[in-house]
């Protein structure tokens, strides 16, 4: 069983976000930025924060084709039951961009915590949960934690992944 951080790192790994700007709205908030594929800008995206779709402007037709081709390789998105039926949606940039944003923000938080602390994630921890020690990570600290708390022998130490 993989831990949530390893799964997040494996989610759409070739896609990143650059120049993200966010703001508050009455409906929660909006955002905009650039979507990069393997380090190269492929699109600008904008979500005004008032409902509706994400506006995506691709750099060129080749970029749009590359993102579309990638999305077609992904599993369909299953929604909750509506009138007793489960609905499936094709994976598209409407799903990709929020997933990449979520991963980016989560990893930023983990990296910030890893600077001065040791973070351990057990396989049963839910997304975003970890145990931390207020000491910088080192192999010696990891060995000491596992010796004192054997249940962390199967944990992933986030400091080693980030």
Query: From the helix content, strand content and strand pairing, which structural class follows?
Result: alpha+beta
How many individual β-strands? 9
Number of helices: 5
* Amino- and carboxy-terminal Cα gap: 20 Å
Q: Level of helix content?
A: 25-40%
Look at the structure and give the mean pLDDT: 91
Beta-strand portion reads 25-35%
> How would you spell out the order of helices and strands?
HEEEEHEEHEEHEH
**Would you identify the regions where 5 or more consecutive residues have pLDDT less than 50?**
none
Strand line-up in the sheet with most strands = 1-2-3-4
Give the overall shape.
globular
Largest sheet: 4 strands, antiparallel
As a whole number of angstroms, the C-alpha radius of gyration is 19 Å
Q: What topology emerges from the helices and strands here?
A:
Layout: H1 4-10, E1 15-23, E2 30-37, E3 40-47, E4 55-58, H2 61-72, E5 77-82, E6 85-89, H3 93-114, E7 118-121, E8 131-133, H4 139-148, E9 156-157, H5 158-161
Antiparallel strand pairs: 1-2, 2-3, 3-4, 5-6, 7-8, 7-9
Q: Describe it for me?
A:
With 162 residues, the chain is α+β, with helices and mostly antiparallel strands. The protein has a domain of 111 residues. Helix content is 34%, strand content 30%. It contains five helices and nine strands. The strands form three sheets. The protein has a four-stranded antiparallel sheet, covered by helices on one side. A three-stranded antiparallel sheet has the order 8-7-9. The model has no long low-confidence stretch (mean pLDDT 91).
